[in-house]
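NAD-dependent epimerase/dehydratase family protein: structure tokens wanted.
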Amino acid sequence: MRVLVTGGAGFLGSHLCDRLVAEGHDVLCVDNYYTGTKDNIAGLLGNHRFELMRHDVTFPLYVEVDRIYNLACPASPIHYQRDPVQTTKTSVHGAINMLGLAKRVRARILQASTSEVYGDPEVHPQVEEYWGKVNPIGIRSCYDEGKRAAETLFFDYWRQHSLEIKVMRIFNTYGPRMHPDDGRVVSNFIVQALRGEPITIYGDGQQTRSFCYVDDLIEGMWRLMESPADFTGPVNVGNPTENTMLELAEAVIRLVGGPSRIEHRPLPSDDPRQRRPDISLARKELDWEPTVALEDGLRETIDYFRHRLAL
Ligand code: NAD
Ligand code: UDP
Ligand code: UDP
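Answer:
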């Protein structure tokens, strides 16, 4: 198949491109390098099945493909808040363009949505039926509401134009190729521990997240795309093991060793207090569940950063 991956030079996108090329597909990677880098896909550049195009998805794109994975969008709060208007445009105009493309060539299309559509959730763990509690005017809204609008567009193209859609609600994912300055908690803690700097916990550290290792996530994404046509999602894909940020910091310090101590910083506004996916639907429809334990995934990620930072 000919497969388009938008945001393919990013953290998740580059792992997805690796997987698709390994499965024998022709992959077109589209990225404007806002947060992604060519380094992430350096290993694929000489491969005749792989093609790279610099392009911003807020502009139309005319190509011929059979599958579209729409991942283009900065995912870390510091990056998506740097140019919030562009973040909303990327989610909304990007979705319209990719859906328009999917409609013209009758391609199946998958949207990388997010657990952020649940906002600061009142239902725990989060099930797909929950509509979420999202601030429409806060500093996270460009991301949360952009992704919610993208989901709306996907379901309207499905109802109105009978497109084959797949909506995947991705929960916090980590692993090699996260950017050292990405700003997300796992990369921050590991880079700080490796450099012997203080580990910065925002707030009291009692807020929770559930961390999925990238290989598990890509397996779930692949299974969702190739699931029967009548299964649209939305479906949660993430690891149901929940940890406080304090527990994560302690695990990173233990695995890295070294002198780092914990320092507390102010909690950013609208920071969700707890997050854990209910993955019953993914288990049932995709026969999928994560297999990599947090400690094992952290070890792999620590090795990557140790090598990358040459520490
Ligand atoms: P990332 O920032 O590493 O990758 C995003 C990629 O999109 C980058 O390569 C970036 O350059 C590209 N991009 C941004 N705006 C673009 C535009 N207008 N046109 C073309 N390319 C553009 O982030 P990631 O962690 O790999 O996330 C990938 C997708 O998965 C995102 O849509 C994100 O919202 C979603 N997601 C990720 C997580 C996670 O924990 N990593 C969780 C939930 C959802
Ligand atoms: N589009 C695109 N590539 C295509 C087809 C469409 O980028 O191959 C974009 C184009 O910008 C268009 C948008 O997708 O405006 C939505 O397409 P659709 O056909 O749904 O609506 P249109 O705006 O063309 O009426
Ligand atoms: N966080 C933290 N220290 C950091 C970076 C993040 O304590 O250096 C916290 C952040 O406030 C949030 C959690 O870790 O409660 C996860 O943050 P991240 O940005 O990784 O993801 P998201 O909030 O989008 O789930």
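The longest strand covers residues 108-114. Residues 76-77, 172, 184-185, 188, 200-202, 207, 209, 245, 268, 271 surround uridine-5'-diphosphate (ligand 3) (CB under 6 Å).

Cheers.
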